[in-house]
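User: Before I run my own analysis I want an independent prediction to cross-check against. Here's the chain; please return only the structure tokens and, at the end, one sentence I can use as a sanity check.
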Amino acid sequence: MTTRVIIVDDQAMVRAGFAALLAAQSDIEVVGDAPDGVQGVALSRRTHPDVVLMDVRMPEMDGLEAARRLLDPPAGVTHRPKVLMLTTFDVDDYVYEALRAGASGFLLKDAPPADLISAVRVVAAGEALLAPSVTRRLIADFARQRPAPRAGRTALRLNGLTPRETEVLELIARGLSNQEIAEALILAEQTVKTHIGRVLAKLALRDRAQAVIFAYESGLVAPGER
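Assistant: Structure tokens:
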């Protein structure tokens, strides 16, 4: 199955480079590119890509607002692509907000080509790009900038999880992969996937990225903890 991708970035060289790299893959088709968020949203509405590579800082409309419009479309629009944010270390706070909006993860712009290809495939498969060690550091940075955990409804939703599901959620929030969680809890990896599915369903979360945000905001995990 071919993954359809569009690239939204205000730098023409970035768009061209990423497009050439991805188009060379037999399982990826680049169906368009755009220089800003306004055109990116319009392009997505027309082409219905599986994955949108979205820069954070752009003219006209930044990537954060464009991601919100794609992931929470108006009535009558049913297409919701996976959004992978492209970022640098100096815009971490924007990326955090994008994850809260439902983006499936983020990738540093200077990442190796193999990482970009892998990221598109991971996101297209429905996973969140939150496993690499660099991401663990960024998650902690995001949380450190956030206000105190939300009391009330957010924290109470944790009560609906079993003790094992709570453990799995905590390890997800610490940036562990499915394999690492399986090793930590002495479980089969397929069992871990089942637990993650139940956690997402019970908490009404879209994906692993939102699970991380929920874990921090509910107070299950505190910034800087390991």
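Sanity check: The mean pLDDT is 82.
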